[in-house]
Amino acid sequence: MGILLVRRHVPESPRWLFIHGREEEAERIVDSIEREVREETGEELEEPGSSITVRQRKTISLREVAATAFKTYPKRSFLGLALFVGQAFIYNAVTFGLGTFLVTFYDIKDNIVPLYIALFAVSNFLGPLLLGHLFDTVGRKPMISGTYIGSALVLTVLTILFVGDSLGTWGFMALLLVTFFLASAGASSAYLTVSEIFPMETRAMAIAFFYAVGTAIGGVTGPYIFGKMIESGKESQVAIAFFIGAGVMALGGLAEIFFGVKAEQAELEDIAKPLTAQDTERDKRPDEEVAERPEPSRRSRDLGAERTAAQRAQAHRYRLGPGRGGGSRGLPVSAPVTEVEFTREVERIEQVLAEHGVTERRELARLVGARFWGPGRFPAALREAVLSGRVQRVDRTHFAPPGQQTGGRFQRQDEREATEQR
């Protein structure tokens, strides 16, 4: 029931929709999100800073997904397996065997065992709740490796004290709760990791695959080994199971140290390039180059040349739709732009500044209607206008017509490049 409620109220991923040829629906979702942000904050969102071109596809084969995971990203695949096997082993082993363990070694009555399991559940809930934000601020690698190795170390201490008969019931539970406070945050990060380090078309399959394999290896062997050790009634035998659990968790932490990806606060497309984007780059033909964005070194005065009828007709081939590059405002993809269009955008910026004088960057974007240009177009046009001398930058966020006096506080762009800005 909870999932049905989520599916009803949480929008679909615009990235996924666009890749699968549903750009109009993706556009509506992005528009609604931007509108809500404007209403809640009273501020306009900045235009996207970059773009990629994708070839829309309805489906991607399982074979291609598997090849991507194990041929293109073998180290990341090993990392995913290590994280899932470790958390599956320790979780399934302790969760299924905790009640029997408490009855066998601490003489806890059966009707009291659920209370201890409830405490165990609380510690598991608090781990991700209290530590989760640190994975985005401190970073993925230190937090994932820290939670995995930290839980392994605490479990090792617990095992040594347990074998030495130095722990009572509450001493054992205290160390166990600390172990799984850390392990629960680490286990949650395993899902996070495999969902973001592979191309976005494979994210759902990656979670399903690594969860299935991790559970098959660790989720089956963990309860079996732990159950057999408890049945023996010997602390030394149980200690072996605990040590194995600590070992596989430590292995997951070490795998993160060596193969982890610094994915915090990064674009998904930068972490792993979409398969559809790779398709476009691989299949690009020489005659398509005329519709690509001009090189930054080109100047606006060179972009106003008349295009032939054949070239203009060729540019019209690039429209939204499956199998072609497509553009959608606010999405990390864009349609190719002709030189004529690019020149007009540069000229529009120059015209608006001539009419309004010194203008703040976001206000300039609003005045020229940049939100309708497509992702990455306004920053590129503005940069070209500054480089060609048709616009002067007066500070980091303000721009003016060339040669306009700005009260002596700022200098023209060509002077600013040689002199420190005051």
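(ticket continues) Second input and output from the same batch:
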Amino acid sequence: MKRFAHQYNELITGMLSCFDRILFKGYLPIGWGDSMEGFLTQQGLRIKDFSKFVQKQSRRIAEHAERLAKNSGRPYLYLNGPHRKEAIVQGLIEAEDLRQGLVCVMRAVEPCQSFKLVPGEGRPRLIAARRKCLCFYFYFLDPKLGLVHVRIQSWFPLVIQVCLNGHDILARKLDKHGIAYRKEDNAFTWIEDTRRAQRFADRLVKMNWPRILTSLARRVNPLLKDLLAGMDYYWVTDQAEYATDVMFKSPAALKPLYEKLVKHASTCFSAEDVLKFLGRKLHGNYQGEVLSDYKKRWPGVRIKHRAKSNWIKMYDKHGRVLRIETVINQPREFKVRRQGVRQGRQVIDWFPLCKGVANLFRYAEICRGANRRYLDALAVVEPPVEAMHDLRCLARSKQRNGRPHRGFNPVAEDDLHLFAAILRGEHALCGMRNQDVRHQLFGETTDRDRRRRQANKVSRLFRRLHVHGLLAKIPRSRRWRLTERGTLLISVFLKCHYDKYPELLAALVA
């Protein structure tokens, strides 16, 4: 993300990439009908006794939750209807200046995944079904994890949900090492040593998450001590938010820039660009919707680019932090390099990314790359003063090996079409070939002579772009890539033509 940091170096105090909200879920090996029937058989019960058995165990969980709250002297609340649980919890923390331990226990009737009895051949059967049951929320202030909530449903298969915040974990780490910072809500507005803080944030994926999450599960599920002894939860990452925060010196430094960033992102980023930000290749077999959503929210606006169930969004926090955040809900859209089976053989290759917590490191890699590409694309907004000199040089002809190469005209139709073709998002990951640009400029043709002439013309255009420092050859390949200078200047050319020139002309006419 050096391009963005270099461009706005005078306005920012630092950058930090860290997990924000992480939602884990734990599943016992009795999550489907056959396994639950086998478990009942082990307990010496019949399938028709399922309802009575579940009600009895549900009462045990409720009694445990009430006893835990009473022994800790904390509130035991019943929520009827919609409530903002986080607001209630924060109110309790601030009112009593809590630092550690149980904050409260909440209970509410909510939908859950459970079982139901259905008629079967010779005997009834258990099948998975959507039910409603009493769910318990335990809010803890952990000395290492910060504020954590653990939700357990009181009906089998006793799915557990654990939600925590990466910025809270990092704040505890900074406190331990004596690094000063300022934090509002879940965002750092200033950190004394951002490089060291980034190293701490990068270590979050190396924590022993199965051990940490199992320890939390044992605090809320009393059945793990006897009835379910020997069973372990299998932990998955149900949702992960990874944020890159750009900390500005003051709200006055961010506000005018943020308005331009939002305008650029909403008008210039296409569906192809969104896929490339998320590290996806554009192909004809893509089945899904890609859209950009603009929404006003307090205290400003946010823009979200969605590809299926994953998205990347931009918003400002407390007027001082520009946040780029990638959210992964559907990890199988991405790949991870691991051991697997290909054509009956064990190989190490790229396979679809699964939700297991062992892959949390890959979540961080994918999200950090998406945030970087997004910030790089925004780095063309408000170019530095020296870029104006580069624009003037770009319009002049240049000599190379005694041969002149004419410049580029920001209002010439051919130059604009060329710039638009090479700036397409699909070239961001793998570069561009002659035929890629040729198809964009001239379309498809079956005439071999015409295709050859068009290919030669594109080769001359590549050479001209290369002489002016806009394109660079990728070694040992037939592909070209845009240079940083090329990305900046071409973006400015297009922005001037489609944005600034019409505004200036309208003002003069008025």
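Agent notes: Residues 455 and 504 are 38 Å apart (CA to CA). The mean pLDDT is 89. Closing as not reproducible unless the customer responds.
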